[in-house]
């Protein structure tokens, strides 16, 4: 009895589509469905799959592309739009496209066994041999803002040293000229103070150090700042020199995790796609927020993302569905696909009736899916697998070395700021005490020298007889 029931069930399924014409809704998207030269005629991966199923189950079909290009989204009232809406309302028998199987969709429609597997990957500009920039490498250890800040603080410290020399009562400029046997009175004029700053930055030494407490404290903090900067510069310069490979193409990254660690190449996704945010991987979550920190990184269509990767020539990477990225990379050798496969999904044919899906699934083994994949996603750029291409000795991964920015060197700048503030305070205190002392001692007595360069003091009345004797 059971055998009879099984045979009857199989006969019912077999005759469900026998000789019928099924209505198929789909979406124009290469290489799944594309128009041919004849009106109403289509070609693509979806058409070949339907042809194989139609031959195995003896049915015909007609394709009507979805006008709004929507796969199917359920609103708050429980109504579907797009291809899913066509199936639920029984206006179409099949939905054949790169339609992703989700739990929400499976609640309202049935699906066949998978006809396609996909995941998200990264479309990048193919590695190029970088130009030889000569001595530009000498400026790479620091970012542009650090170089600007360094020039600014050099000017500030030089001018402050000149001001301290001018107003501090214990500086070189206050030494009487006859006592200045080493010609140090002009050691910290504006020109000489700026030269002092430049020579210390280059670690070349100097003639004189400031004499005042404020000047010496500022100079000590400046020397500490210079020590930090020189150490950081030399260490990072070594990283850039070791990593220089001017004769090899440089690949910015190979994985999503490596992409998150670098900042030379911007990256983005389609504006409505939030699979990175849904991931349980914190690295992918950071990629989501970083890519959306700049609205210019987002794109509306896959074609827009592809064109942006080409036009930016290595400065932008597009995160998109792997089969779409493979399609672009297989036809344009200026781009390539990298990255591990994340967020894997299954695409299948949706059915308005569960029995119809069961019949199609039973004959899915007669569809040459692997051959169709090679047909519509040919690799016209590299005969070898991508992994072999990336592991070639003539292709190198972008070095993790990066220019140091102001945040990396913030301790050095904070230390110098402390020296500037304390140096100015000490100068003000020194000037205040000197003026207070001068008021207590009364008028300053004039000084003169005799022929032996010995200093003598006296009033104008006392010096007049000496002049008469001469």
Low-confidence sequence ranges: 3-14, 446-470
How many β-strand stretches? 15
**Outline, from the CA principal axes?**
elongated
User: How big a fraction of the residues is strand?
Assistant: 5-15%
Backbone CA Rg = 39 Å
Contiguous helical run count? 17
Note the quaternary state here.
single chain
Order of strands across the biggest sheet? 4-1-5-12-6
Helix content: 40-55%
Largest sheet: 5 strands, mixed
Q: What structural class should be given to the helix and strand makeup? A: alpha/beta
Distance between the termini: 151 Å
Averaged pLDDT: 83
Describe the SSE topology.
Elements: H1 2-14, E1 21-26, E2 34-35, E3 42-43, H2 45-57, E4 60-65, H3 82-88, E5 94-95, H4 103-106, E6 110-111, E7 116-125, H5 144-167, H6 190-201, H7 213-243, E8 250-251, H8 256-261, E9 266-268, H9 275-278, H10 282-291, H11 302-312, E10 316-321, H12 322-331, E11 335-347, E12 350-351, H13 354-362, H14 369-376, H15 386-390, E13 396-397, H16 410-441, E14 447-449, E15 455-457, H17 460-469
Helix pairs in contact: 5-6, 5-7, 5-16, 7-16
Brief summary:
With 470 residues, the protein is α/β, with parallel strands linked by helices. 44% of the residues lie in helices and 14% in strands. Helix 5 (144-167) runs antiparallel to helix 7.
